[in-house]
Specification:
The protein is an alpha/beta fold. The protein is about 35% helix and about 15% strand.
Amino acid sequence: WTRTPAPRSTSMAAAAAALKQSLRKEITAKLKAMSPDERARQSAAIVRQLQARKEYQQAERVAVYISMPSEVATVDIIKDLFQRNRQVFVPSYHGEDMDMYRLHSWEDLLALPRTKWNIQQPEDLEEREASLKAQGVDLVISPGLAFSTSGQRLGRGGGYYDRYLSQLQQRRSQLQLAPAVVWGVAFGEQMVAEVPVTERDVTLDDVLVGTREEP
């Protein structure tokens, strides 16, 4: 008998998965080598870039992740959004699903419980507005492990943001609203020439980089 060759799409997906895993290891090592001061410097530069953009200034509903130490810090972004009286949404993960839930205030953020992975996220979900059950959000500020300048994004492998972003844009379309603007935020160390992607990976509108100031 002869072995039936694997479908091309299957073999390409397997190759992309292997490349992604290799890139995750490479970028994780670079992030571990960064000093806290350098992370803080680049995070502050990204806040300034956000504040200079009209999409950020005009967005009423903004989804933003709650950062871990190895990520671009979002604490000052969230503070700034509340100071602007914007509606702020943060992620909550359950099984294979993720939605963005509204925060009521800065104090609400500080009081959020932590998961077993030491990530803060809302748990009292029935008392909060879920973005996908409402009108979605105007702007998403997305984390990631690696990014390209063309908007390709490499996450941690769970696919949460790719699924959420697809559902979000479908929801906006259903309601005849403009698509949400989706930006990644990255340290310079996270930027690569190209990210291996499959058809399920969502391309971002732009990536704000901590080593690059707005003109």
